[in-house]
Amino acid sequence: DADVTQTPRNRITKTGKRIMLECSQTKGHDRMYWYRQDPGLGLRLIYYSFDVKDINKGEISDGYSVSRQAQAKFSLSLESAIPNQTALYFCATSVAGGVDGYTFGSGTRLTVV
Amino acid sequence: AQSVAQPEDQVNVAEGNPLTVKCTYSVSGNPYLFWYVQYPNRGLQFLLKYITGDNLVKGSYGFEAEFNKSQTSFHLKKPSALVSDSALYFCAVRDRFSGGYQKVTFGTGTKLQVIP
């Protein structure tokens, strides 16, 4: 099994719908992150969490929310999806400080029509 | 504000030839530097990191990177490219002493194409 598992792998949804992307990890890492990847823009941080009681906004949090249900689970929600949220979404984990780098999931490709 | 630049959107190299993927960075203090690789339909995989010490860092799959403080660069290299090295490569930087959350900034990625 993968260290960081994202579900679903692909999703097509309609404008205005609420959608949740889920992430679970077996690394035992405290820190979890949600990133968005767009061609030519690299990865941009949406939200991050240092532990279950800690949630922080990243650089592009508008239109998104998150929930850290447990140390191993971190979900991302789009409350009312819009077409410019069409992107590849990655969950990542790290130990404190991140000096060992991040472990990424395989991504969720989201299309909003 | 910290930043990372990967000046080449794509690098083409013949199989067996040496490859270089360029990265320059800007941070207020001393950097932690990383390289990741992304294969199609996969997440990013950690390749190597520079934290401190020797400027030449060795990583996975025969890759290495050279930290050059005066040029603020961290170029990824491999002596002999393989077709299987074809992928998207990301450079990332983090300020060593930013306190609290140490933000990691990723570059925009360089597509490496190794031609048989």
Which keywords apply here?
heterodimer, A: 113 residues, mainly beta, 7-stranded mixed β-sheet, 4-stranded antiparallel β-sheet, globular, B: 116 residues, 12 strands
Short characterization:
The complex is a heterodimer of chains A (113) and B (116). Chain A has 113 residues and is mainly beta.
CA radius of gyration of chain A: 13 Å
Number of strands of chain A: 11
Task: Provide the low-confidence segments of chain B as ranges.
Answer: none
* Anisotropy-based shape of chain A: globular
Approximate helicity band of chain B? under 10%
Helical content of chain A, roughly?
under 10%
Question: What is the overall pLDDT average of chain B?
Answer: 92
Beta strands of chain B, count: 12
Count of separate DSSP helical elements of chain A: 0
Biggest interface, residues from each chain = A-B, 22 and 22 residues
Summed over residues and divided by their number, the pLDDT of chain A gives a mean of 93
Gross morphology of chain B is globular
The residue ranges of chain A in which pLDDT falls below 50 over 5 or more consecutive positions are none
